[in-house]
Amino acid sequence: MDYFTCPEKKPVLSLENVSYSYHTLSGETKALDHLSFQIYPGEFVAIVGPSGCGKSTLLNLLAGLLKNQSGELLFHHEDLYKTVHQAKIPRIGYMLQHDHLFGWRTIWENVTLGLELNDMMTPANLENVSALLEKYGLDEFRNKKPSQLSGGMRQRAALIRTLSLNPEVLLLDEPFSALDYQTRLLVSSDIGKIIRENKITALLVTHNLSEAISLADRILVLTRRPASLKSQMEISLTITDASPLGYRSAPEFSEYFNELWEDLWDEKGIG
To answer: What predicted TM-score, i.e. pTM, was given to this entire model?
Structure first.
């Protein structure tokens, strides 16, 4: 599907000329400059760009932690900031670089924390979390503490905690960056499959070009700060092993990688 122009679908998220600046006593630092793009239901989008270009600022805006200073930022054609803060339950999930599991709580107590805080500890919701733990290999560790789990298992637990609230959109801010290379490959593959199986609309910020190509339907390339949209690339890989690991063997993979590298090299760096 061509997501660049998709008239038969209405976007979940729309950014139209969004700009954002940080202000201190020493002056203004512009992070985003007239940034525009759309994300459609069920789409997995990756964002890459030079280090310090404003990717984290963008995610914080999409999570409703910051309010855009100019332009339109819409969630189902309504003001995103207002929608997020008026919602009774979170409609946008945010998975950070580190798992942020509480060491004094069991895995079960960690993955149900969102339900607990939102007064949603219903039998149906708890049964759903149990099913997720079982499906993704963590059921036997539900009474363990986070320190007893590997880094990859902790990240899966963090994702289940986020999914427990059934978010419509999932934001991922470098969620595999703290893992060693081998674990990162395996966990990114696992989490990519989880997102696909649950048909979640996802937006991933990553420094890793191979990760972006193997996980995403579409990749957005940002300019150096202040970030605007430089280019976008729709990913279509022809391979029978339809998994994030298998995709890396696709004949088109190196072509996409080289094109992304050239785009980022023009911006004097990657990240």
So the answer is: 0.86
**CB contact at 8 A, 73 and 80:** yes
Q: Give the separation between CA 112 and CA 60, rounded to whole angstroms.
A: 23
One-letter amino acid at 49 equals G
Residue 240 has pLDDT above 80, yes or no: no
Other CB atoms within 10 A of residue 219 CB:
24
**Residue 70: CB atoms within 10 Å:** 13
Query: Could you identify the residue written with the tokens 């190196």?
Result: 254
What does each C-alpha distance from 232 to 48, 51, 208, 223, 271 come to in angstroms?
10, 18, 16, 11, 16
Please give the structure tokens belonging to residue 239.
């391979």
Alpha carbons 241 and 62: distance in angstroms, whole number: 33
> CA–CA separation, 271 vs 52, rounded Å?
8
13-24 β-sheet, strand order: 27-39, 13-24, 70-75, 78-79
d(CA 224, CA 215): 23
pLDDT tier at 1 (50, 70, 90 boundaries)? very low
Tens digit of pLDDT for each residue in 28-86?
888 999 999 999 999 999 999 887 788 889 999 999 899 889 999 999 989 898 888 88
